[in-house]
Amino acid sequence: IPVRPFRHNEYERFIPAAFPYYGASFST
User: Fold this and answer.
1) What is the pLDDT of residue 27?
2) OST48 middle domain location, by residue (predicted)?
3) How would you class 27 by CB atoms within 10 Å of its CB: exposed for 0-12, middle for 13-18, buried for 19 or more?
4) pLDDT tens profile 1-28
5) pTM score > 0.70 for this model?
6) Could you tell me if 25 and 1 are in contact, meaning their C-beta atoms sit under 8 angstroms apart?
7) Which residues contact 25 (CB under 8 A, 6 or more apart)?
C-alpha cells in the first residue's frame, strides 16, 4: 500500500475517509 506524504491541511481531510480503508487493510 503506497503511502504518500500529504500536506497537513490535505492530511486532516484524508484521515476520516481513510479510516475504513485502513481498518480493512489492517484486518486482512
Assistant:
1) 67
2) 2-28
3) exposed
4) 566 665 555 555 556 666 676 667 666 6
5) no
6) yes
7) 1
